[in-house]
Amino acid sequence: MRLFLALIPPPALRERLGELADAAHSRCGGRRTPDENLHLTLAFLGKVSEERAAALVDWMHGLAVPPGKWQLDAWGHFRGPGIVWVGGSRPDPALQRLHETLWDRLEAHGIPGRPSRYVPHITLLRRAGRLDADGLPAPALAWRYNRLELIHSINNGQDVRYTPLARSQAT
Ligand code: 2AM
Fold this sequence. Notes:
single chain; alpha+beta; Cyclic Phosphodiesterase, Chain: A; 4-stranded antiparallel beta sheet; 3 helices; binds adenosine-2'-monophosphate
């Protein structure tokens, strides 16, 4: 099973992100992330056995994430895969800490793949053209979060569906 840990935007924020995705899509083309798939990845686990996934579900049920607020105020671009994203203009220490803590625990669960660098971002477009943010609305959004989700990513060859398997406790 292909799994990742993510924050899921509340409905009002998801709507705003969808508007930014539409604006970017009209300028840069590519494949727009469907509204229901918008998320912030904290850790990408890759392929995990069903047995290990069950242990991760138990872990998530007992997990409490410190509540935080992430300021979304920048457009960004990963050139290779043509990803256009929104994120923060500065590193966010709380998200960085959360990412590190989660990977400490994932490694204790025997999961490899800790990346050397974490750039928090919300992917709006894939396989898009060059990002030219001139003329695009400046992102100015605040994301208050207090819960993390363990998500199963299912690719049926045409599109990708995300199914939540477990949520951390509300804090
Ligand atoms: P992306 O949006 O920048 O592609 C589910 O695939 C989530 O895990 C996406 O948010 C994706 O980020 C992220 N992710 C991180 N590393 C990945 C990898 N090596 N392969 C696929 N997805 C990855």
